[in-house]
Amino acid sequence: MSDWDAARGIEIPLPVQTYDIDFAGTVGNIVFVRWLEDLRLALMARAYPIARALADDVAPVLLETRIRYAKPVLIGDALTGRMWVTAMERVRWRVAAEFRVGGETHASAEQEGIFIKLSTRKPVRPPEALRRRFEEAGR
Q1: What count of Cα atoms within 13 Å lies in the side-chain half-sphere of residue 25?
Q2: What sign has the CA pseudo-torsion 136, 130, 12, 114?
Q3: How confident is the model at residue 47 (pLDDT cuts 50, 70, 90)?
Q4: How far apart are the first and last CA of the chain?
Q5: How far is CA 102 from CA 3, 13, 80, 106, 109, in A?
Q6: What are phi and psi of 35, to 5 degrees?
């Protein structure tokens, strides 16, 4: 069961490629990490695209990733990824994600991170555009 909220999240198809498959015929674990990056970039693009972040001398940095694998994902599966913001705090942010095939969750994940000022490498508050976007969606 998820806390899915379309106003606070993104849902996109994630094509399974031949190079995603491991020796057991399933999607390899590392592929989910790449898909989390795709989902996070798509989520940010709604309010604060990465090009704008870089122009503002700001970048997101991951502190932690947790993935729970429930069912294997196979080459022919029509996979959908969902990601939504669960917290946008003074410095830290958190997102949750699900990887679904035919309405069933095959894996779920959480990530936590911060934003840094690139020129100093020091933590900064999440950008105003992101805070505003995800605070408004939570109302």
Answers
A1: 1
A2: negative
A3: confident
A4: 21
A5: 18, 12, 9, 10, 18
A6: -65, -35
Give pLDDT tens digits for 55-65. 999 999 999 99
As for how many domains the chain has, the answer is 1
- Is residue 134 situated within a structural domain? no
- Whether 137 maps to a domain, the answer reads no
**Is residue 96 assigned to a domain?**
yes
- Residue carrying structure tokens 């695209």: 49
Helix (H) or strand (E) holding 32: helix 29-45
CATH code at position 36: 3.10.129.10
The residue range of the domain holding 66 is 6-129
91-114 pLDDT per residue, tens: 999 999 999 999 999 999 999 999
Q: How many CB atoms lie within 10 A of CB 85?
A: 22
